[in-house]
């Protein structure tokens, strides 16, 4: 079994999802996000007769679709995607699956229910259509045992993770009879259309991610009880310090549901005993069984391991935490561990792990917890790799990929093992009498025999991924395979190197005449170092412009940019260094202008959070190639400011262009321009943030011509291809606009009236009103006669004037300070 993805043999054009529960309905929603029509079916409610109205017979599936439209986080990229889902029930509408290329079974985890449904499905499905199961607990092959050849040949497992839109892992579980072409087709579709990381697994209990993840969570609970820790202490230890989601163990349990957690844990325990798993001591904790009796099921029941108890003075939820020994709730307190306090100063997870793991366990509760938690995870994971299919994975790569994309771990277990230091860790394990996995011993023996450092992974610039992994069954290092088009700046830098860099950004040679400007400051906050490097790189006559035909601005991080460096700004404002503040704003404007007027095309590839100045960088590019999961917004009003890096200027120009595109009109061009201006004013004044790239287009941050990448791992390749295409087509930088018809004082008066009305109704604060009026002033081109021709520089000067004025406001300074402290906006 290989982790390479093969060419697609045939198209997937229509999909059916059988089962409209939480998982099935969300799978259907994400297929609709990909632009495909979907048939979503479920059972007829018990007691509803054949003569009942269609709405009654479809009650369950219609309720599921309604829930999808309201779900948070959003299941759909945009509300329109819901229109691609056709609903029905298993009794009346199975005929709808006849023209579906892929049928996904997502009904209850009951073998007889699944088999009974498949017998009905077989009467309606087209011969050769692919049919898969999303089961996480039943053997894939056993579900279709004894069924017709055509069904068994086109049958395998496709295990999605919840919520399917956001969790990238798709485990593919073939049987001995599964068609290789079908496996390739769904792998390709999952990768390119659904944005999934495709990980093959053998048909073993819980497959890969749930097998490892459930062990890890169960072991954390076991250690908590053995060491007398609290729930919130374990959450602090099993969250961000390890590069795991900040929810930790129990907050995650509340999110997914305590009943779901208990079901998975019970299934793990049952299967562990059945297959002779070496860790049969990881079982469902007795206090969780009592929680189930009390219906304390987590967020959906308003209480679980945590319980909301009102709000604090800043409007934030107050949480009480469960005492697992007494089952009483107590006020939540932030745990303090000396080891974690020291780890806060270590930015890289790879450096934090050895510090946490090898701390003195005798003097710190954190270290005492981490040692068994991690070393037992390393051993358990290494034992889940086998060459004969008896374990879920063939290679360590599959396990690491599954945990990173299914549980959102920054590093997989074997990458964590490498970070911990294999030799030092295993020596200490042996000294303590702890078991060391046979596969680990093989790697240690190889390293000793060859005089090299023991490491599961080694760098190798000759392979596309830039890495090789140790295969214990051949006793050699093999390339980490990636699909064509999957790339990262980390891998590229190993082979091409860095053209130029400073503390905040780097220029990386991507090959083929394309360079990437990579942002790598903390949270990619835009400070002087990033501004300086972009300016130096993109200005006419620079060494980079002479050496490269096009540029891409992107990165490997979780978020593209959270905007300007507010700490840097606040310090200057508090010192009243107004000349310095004005120079900072001018330099930022110069940077975005350099992007816009660069002689070479610049493509910006934003992803994750792209806020404030990150949006302004994007707006000034020749084109954008965003990732589908894009949370994009000009949010400056939230900290008492307005966009001043050309954001208002660009939105003014967009308003005028939108008005021009729909003229002539009986209402007159001024009205049309104002409607577009009003929309953009609301977007800025209300600090609207998109929930997807598709929604960012609706907010005016992306153009219709901007292409969207679904798979995050393909973003760099897609952006590079876009940049090359623009360059090869013959690119000319835009000309500076000197006669932009300003919307002027009439539009400004109308917008200010709307602000006054909102203030009179107490919908906004006095400071909100002041900020909104400055937004209107900048967008309208100031108090000039409507249609007055103004230059781009004039609009930039208005932005800067408004920004500097607001910086001097005490309430703005309070907002900035509060956001820096809490990460949240202050409405003062």
Automatic annotation (TrEMBL):
Q: Name one GO molecular function term.
A: NAD+ binding
- Record-annotated 3-hydroxyacyl-CoA dehydrogenase NAD binding domain positions: 14-203
All residue ranges annotated as the Enoyl-CoA hydratase/isomerase domain in the record: 517-648
One GO biological process this protein is involved in is: fatty acid metabolic process
Keywords of the record, alphabetical order, are: NAD, Oxidoreductase
Where the record annotates domain 3-hydroxyacyl-CoA dehydrogenase C-terminal, the positions are 207-307, 395-431
Q: Which reaction does it catalyse?
A: a (3S)-3-hydroxyacyl-CoA + NAD(+) = a 3-oxoacyl-CoA + NADH + H(+)
Question: Origin, by domain of life?
Answer: Bacteria
This protein's name: Enoyl-CoA hydratase [isoleucine degradation]
Traced from the root, the source organism's taxonomic lineage reads: Bacteria, Pseudomonadati, Acidobacteriota, Terriglobia, Terriglobales
